[in-house]
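Hey everyone, long-time lurker, first post.

I ran two proteins through the pipeline my lab uses and got sequence/structure pairs for each. Pasting them in order. The first:
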Amino acid sequence: MPGTIAIIAALPREIAAVVRGTKADAALVKDGVWLYRVEGAVVVAAGMGAERAGIAVEAGLATGDVGMLISTGLAGGCVPGVVAGMVIEANVVVDAGTGERFVTAVAGNVTLASAGAIASVREKARLAESYGAAMVGYGGGDRGADCGGEGAGVSGDQGSVGWV
């Protein structure tokens, strides 16, 4: 699959609409990895957290020539303009645990903070103040810019998309 897009999410429910009508790779499901093949893409969910996101990325990369990595999933709004139902592409992803910043290939001025747990209202305000975050992702896989960097063998664009 040259030029395949790898779409990474934390939870199977986050990718359900994209993979409807297909079956997950049975050999991987036993390890908690839901990998689906759809036209032009491989779609993977392997659970929450950076370690599980890494497992999902590895599973996606193992399928062939991945040219683009997109991390996607549910996100919470940190600022008043971000409301339920919006789809937002982040051009900067900040690891809320370390403060490390990752720039994606997306043009714009939207920062997503990647957190390991659902953020309270107070935490969302802190992320907005500290990092300029418009939204917070919860799965650990929203660190799309670093999940598939050069060391992982992905060339081309990487991005992070959240929907609130």
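...and the second, right after it:
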Amino acid sequence: MGRLKGDLERDLCLMVDSSGSVEEEIFEAVKSVVPTLFQMANVQKRRFGVLTFSDKTQFSGWLTSYNPRLLGRVLQWQGMGSELNTTILAGLESKNRNYDAVMLTDGQILNMDKVVATFYASAMRGNRIGIFNIEHTIPWGVFAAHYETVPRDPDEIKRAILKYVVDTLF
């Protein structure tokens, strides 16, 4: 899919719930697809970013070159609660670019109402969010460009994310 005629440049962001309920094994499996996602983004001259959330939200910033040290600092399993800082989430937006986000969560986000409102507003401005929810069906609303419930199987989750990115975003 990539860019549509008249569409802004598009970046790619992987958002990963790193709370204890997601489990470290699943987090590590998703972490292992980051080099592939970065390479895919780089081929299309997209910036790439990683956002993780648990008790704190961390964002790598928009990267144009692969920085394993920086990504390693952001991609840490926190294993605590689950709150997504909506100020950081809203800060992903740029006046001249849109983004495609791929989010993995188990849907147990403490500030869910604020997150849904932020995602909805972002989608209305042309950003696309694909959500992979582990085992639970959560009513994310009409803003999600893609919504899929995935089993608690690390290999199946990796496969689903990569399939979505290849089939839908590139």
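Reply from user beta_strand_b:
Welcome! Quick read of the second one: The two ends are 5 Å apart (CA to CA). Residues 154-169 form the longest helix (16 residues).
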